[in-house]
Amino acid sequence: MQPMQPSDPSPGTVVAQRFVIEELAGSGGMGAVYRAHDLLSGRKVALKLLYGRSIQQRDLERFAREAQLLAELHHPGIVSYLAHGQSQGGVPYLAMQWLEGEDLSVRLERSRLTPRETLAVLEKAADALAAAHRLGIIHREPSQRTCSIAKPATGPGLGKSRGISRGICNGRKAPATAPPPSLHAPPCRMLKLKLL
Questions:
Q1: Residue 30, CB half-sphere, CA atoms under 13 Å: how many?
Q2: Is residue 58 annotated as part of the catalytic site, yes or no?
Q3: Global pTM value
């Protein structure tokens, strides 16, 4: 196992003396998400690393704030928060529940959902978003890419015991004295919906 390198973590890299990177799951302009192994629990996790030349202080503050918001959310339709902080090398990370499956967008490229599947997706997504709204958190970019179709224990598809949607949110927590969530609620990008 090797220490974390912000530019190109490879399989076997250990983050925060806890998460061993297995493979890249996706990347963007400010970082990447990796499938990793949690040495404490023995489970697979989604490990988001924030790095890049364009990262500014406000990006670091938003990342930390959104990780805190995700830590407050406990709902079967929202990916579970595990931990966040900085690696030994100072790279901010967020560890979340790993979902075996695919984004809703990938599923829809293959084929349409049946009417029953569509209703299940809408119901689960609305329930998860309502739970976030009750805490004053608004998801500002709900989309097919922020919802995941999880593989049920019995095989691929829309399972009854596993989720269909969990999403990453671009919302913020509204002040305690604020009215119900609206477009004025602060944005959070860390809310990932899982469709059960």
A1: 14
A2: no
A3: 0.74
